[in-house]
Amino acid sequence: MPLALLALAIGAFGIGTTEFVIMGLLPEVAADFGVTVPTAGLLVTGYALGVVAGAPVMTVLGTKVSRKRMLMLLMGLFIAGNLLSAAAPVFGLMLTGRIVASLAHGAFFGIGSVVAAGLVAPQKRAGAIALMFTGLTVANVVGVPLGTFIGQTAGWRTTFVVVAGLGVLGLLGVARLVPDMPKPEGVRLRHELAAFRNAQVLLAMAMTVLGFGGVFAAVTYVAPMMTEVAGFADSSVTWLLVLFGLGMVAGNLVGGRFADRALMPMLYLSLGGLTLVLALFTVTAHHKAAAALTLALIGALGFATVPPLQKRVLDHAHGAPTLASAVNIGAFNLGNALAAWLGGLVIAAGLGYTAPNWVGALLAGSALLLAFLSAALQRRDEARGAQAAQEPRPAAPEPVHL
Predict the structure, then answer these.
(1) Of 27, 150, 238, 328, whose CB is crowded by the most CB atoms within 10 A?
(2) pLDDT tens for residues 322-348?
(3) Residue 155, Ramachandran bin (φ over 0: left; ψ between -120 and 50: alpha; else beta)
(4) DSSP-assigned letters across all residues of 267-313
(5) How far is CA 46 from CA 10, 50, 51, 251, in A?
(6) Predicted structure pTM score
(7) Distances (CA, A) of 315 to 111, 119, 325
């Protein structure tokens, strides 16, 4: 595997860290700016909405320049956003910094996947893409807990300065190690948008929004839930996030392993299990050991949906895999934004820090229903296709001789 993949993985590590580390620092950020925890949750919502908007827009803009230059520009945007967050004197400016950083997220993974695949032989492309995405999964095991620890001991602003430093490393790595690649030719927005007329593509994206939204409904407010309800010390949030990250890595590997073998059964199992575990979290959150185990299961079941959902989008977006893939990454973050907002609403309504778990269970359960609907529509279409293939074709008319 070429060293250029290491540069892409470092960039993915930084992006993954800045996306998720805010969850462990919400109480500190809220106290510093004098806002409530639900209001601080807008930093999660704002970032997620920035990814939703930025993924397609930046991907399309990326067709105008070389892929290496676009990756460098995206990392520059990421660095600027994190530095703005670190230096923000008021809450609104920090929210702006989060949104600026988020614009790089979806396009980096979309364009980076294409670059990673182009760096190796055809039979090694899946491994190259997986290696780049390893940066994202490792961020949840190492970067997020470490960033949370730094934020709780040296101040949350220090965390964002460190994350900006990771962005600098990624930028230098891309500049030095990624070879020059010509800008893509023949890309037409009309062809890219045609994939979104496919009902299966839209259903898969809706499952992405609701299923992963279920995860974030609970995890966005995990710091106050674990400290105020379960009774953990503030310092315990770090290793609790390690457990969540390990669950994510395990679920991602299992989901990827079985997505090619039995995609829909894998979705049924992961979404059904996620719905059940989120509902149980309202009870287990009151007991330390049970809460820690449940948190790991939420990470595993939530990320077990990622490979099959991403693959289902690509399978049905025949003419526009790049844009559809980037938009589906945006769909994950739309789910994050929706869930963080809904979770903040139920907390602000006085229902307690465990109330977002019920929101998550309802979202994941809705995704499971859409999975059943998607499979039923596919069976209907396949049956119609088979029936049409068996119907005798009308005989050709006899030639007329004059």
Answers:
(1) 328
(2) 677 778 777 887 887 788 888 888 988
(3) left
(4) HHHHHHHHHHHHHHHHHHTTSHHHHHHHHHHHHHHHHHTHHHHHHHH
(5) 24, 6, 9, 26
(6) 0.75
(7) 18, 23, 10
